[in-house]
Design brief:
The protein contains 30 helices and six strands. The longest helix has 17 residues. The radius of gyration is 32 Å and the shape is elongated.
């Protein structure tokens, strides 16, 4: 029997061409589409599962999964986690994608650090320079200082201490957590800096209220980098804080000349400009920016309404509110009503304040927060309606803060009679009871009540109590901008290079004011029973008087003098400044802790209500 040898044909090779074609098509969808719906994502996921080689995916497949993770993280984080759990041996790139998804999420940012920890525990995997910006972004948002410091340690451990991206993120993180020194140390140690690095540190300093340092950093940056829109916005915000109008106007001009800004960022910058001009005392320029905007959002209207409020222009604030709501059909938000209620407060318009509070609650269904209650309580109390104000305090759903108690104490200080004194003592006790947040303001206000009643023994006891507790009165500080330079003065300051000339001119001013019948109000003097000469000398050393004297000496005729003070202007300095504006024919714009005062021809825009 013949034996026939039959050789089996070799197995046919499975072609990978269809799989590559499918993957290219999927990658095109996941890369070029502006948005992908969840049903589409699930179809793509199923396609990848059908065509991906098992059990070990190729780099191409892993990249497809990372894109799928990215899009799903924008839509459904729970689905994203399911996808992640099905990826065998995910690499650092995949972990980064998941960390980024959590960092950008609304409610699950804390999971970003948990996934980062998982990455650190994976054998053979290490974080890379793109890992840390996502982790630190989540830590910054959550104010998670300990977790962010751990991430910083890993930045150094894994050799990224010189990386620009990681360091920029560290600056932002430390600034968000209020750690200005740590943010500066990171910046100072950077061997290489980008424009983003400078923007980060300048913005960090602005957010922490270190406006002078922010502008100094900006000046230091200019030889190396041209500022962009983000830089200029931070500079504008710093100028708002300092009241540096000249620098703010330069920033505005720079934006117009050099910055190409998209429509959304344009609104943001112009809103900042409106706020800056309002805070620098130039409503005219704020209105010019506002009216020149082709598109406005609710923040544009809020900035303008708040500007009118702090300048005491209540009627114009109401007009813009009506225009915003009735003509532009823009829905007001809680900040809008802070502005409107502040406008009522600064003008003492009780009925209007009650009306707008009612509109906010009943028409626009906005839940009042502490700021809204604070405006209404202060308005009522300063108009003598202490009992009604206290009634609101007892009925509001949250605990009153120190600002409200100080407002009530300040208002009771202004009332006359024994009831006022007893109420003042009660308000002071409320404030002093909080030892953890004790400040000198309650003691100072109560001492003024006793000084007004000539109860000097109690004034002395208050002063001793402050000394025993280590509390000191916050020193008055005023600044004035002359020829583009901001000059700062403290009460009794003798450190200015032209101090001698300033004090000599103050003598001249006082002689002319006495000729107009100026009489000092000694209740504004220090907390001691001094003679009139001692009290008068202390009053003439108030910081705003030094700033005004310097401004008149050095400013060109016809240019308004703009003074910015950290404390509320006292009654004596208010009368003093009104007379100066008349005798020296000068306009003085003063921003104190609460509001603007525009002195001209012997009167003030606040109508003596502040």
């Amino acid at each position: 029997m013949a034996t026939v040898s039959v050789t089996a044909p070799p197995p046919a090779e499975v072609s990978t061409a269809p799989r590559h074609h499918h993957h290219r098509r999927i990658l095109h969808i996941l890369t070029d589409s502006p948005t992908v719906s969840v049903p589409q994502l699930k179809q793509i996921h199923a396609q990848i599962l059908r065509t991906a080689p098992a059990p070990h995916p190729t780099p191409e497949t892993v990249f497809l999964y990372s894109r799928l993770l990215h899009y799903s993280s924008l839509k459904d984080l729970f689905y994203t986690l399911r996808i992640f759990s099905q990826i065998p041996d995910p690499n650092t790139f995949v972990y980064n994608t998941l960390i980024r998804g959590y960092a950008h999420s609304k409610d699950h940012k804390k999971e970003a650090f948990s996934v980062f920890r998982q990455l650190l525990n994976q054998e053979g995997l290490f974080p890379e320079k793109y890992t840390f910006p996502f982790v630190l972004k989540a830590c910054a948002y959550l104010f998670a200082l300990d977790e962010g410091k751990q991430a910083h340690a890993h930045v150094l451990k894994h050799g990224f201490g010189s990386d620009v991206y990681a360091n920029n993120s560290l600056i932002h993180f430390y600034a968000s957590c209020g750690q200005s020194e740590s943010a500066r140390k990171v910046f100072d140690k950077m061997p290489e800096r980008s424009l983003v690095s400078w923007n980060s540190i300048i913005d960090a300093l602005v957010q922490m209220g270190e406006f002078d340092d922010a502008l100094r950093m900006f000046v230091e940056m200019k030889p190396s980098f041209d500022p962009d829109g983000y830089t200029v916005q931070s500079v504008i915000d710093a100028c708002s804080g300092l009241g540096a109008l000249s620098m703010g106007m330069w920033a505005h001009a720079y934006v117009l000349r050099n910055c190409e800004i998209d429509a959304n960022f344009d609104i943001l910058v112009k809103n900042s400009l409106i706020e800056m001009y309002c805070k620098c005392g130039s409503l005219r320029m704020a209105l010019q920016v506002f009216h020149g905007m082709s598109k406005r959002d609710v923040n544009s209207w809020n900035a303008m309404i708040l500007g009118f409020a702090v300048h005491g222009e209540a009627e114009r604030a109401f007009e813009h509110f009506d225009q915003m709501v009735n003509e532009e059909r823009i829905q007001p938000n809680p900040i809008t009503f802070v502005g409107v209620l502040s406008a009522c407060n600064h003008r003492g318009l009780v009925e209007e304040g009650r009306k707008y509070f009612d509109i906010m609650v009943n028409k626009f269904k906005i839940e009042p927060v502490l700021q809204h209650y604070g405006c209404l309580i202060d308005l009522l109390a300063r108009n003598g309606l202490i009992e009604e104000a206290l009634g609101i305090v007892s009925e509001m759903p949250m605990k009153p803060d120190d600002v409200i108690w100080r407002s009530l104490l300040d208002s009771t200080c202004r009332q006359s009679g024994g009831l006022s004194l007893s109420l003042s003592e009660e308000m002071a006790r409320r404030l002093m009871a909080d030892e953890a947040n004790a400040s000198s303001e309650a003691y100072v206000l109560l001492s003024r009540v006793y000084a007004s009643a000539n109860r000097w023994n109690e004034v002395g006891l208050i002063r001793k109590l402050m000394s025993d507790k280590g509390l000191t009165k916050e020193p008055g500080c005023s600044s004035v901008e002359v020829n583009g330079t901001v000059h700062e003065f403290f009460a009794g300051d003798s450190t200015h290079p032209q101090a001698k000339e300033i004090y000599q001119f103050l003598d001249v001013i006082e002689e002319r004011l006495k000729g107009e019948g100026y009489i000092q109000d000694f209740t504004q003097a220090p907390l001691v029973d001094e003679g009139e000469d001692g009290k008068g000398n202390s009053l003439r050393l108030h910081s705003e008087r030094l700033a005004i004297a310097f401004g008149i000496l050095k400013s060109k005729p016809g240019i308004p003098i703009r003074v910015f003070k950290n404390l509320r202007v006292c009654g004596d300095c208010h009368n003093f400044t009104k007379l100066i504006s008349k005798i020296f024919n000068v306009e003085i714009v003063m921003r104190d802790r609460l509001r603007f005062h525009r002195f001209k021809d012997g009167s003030c825009s606040c109508m003596d209500f502040w």
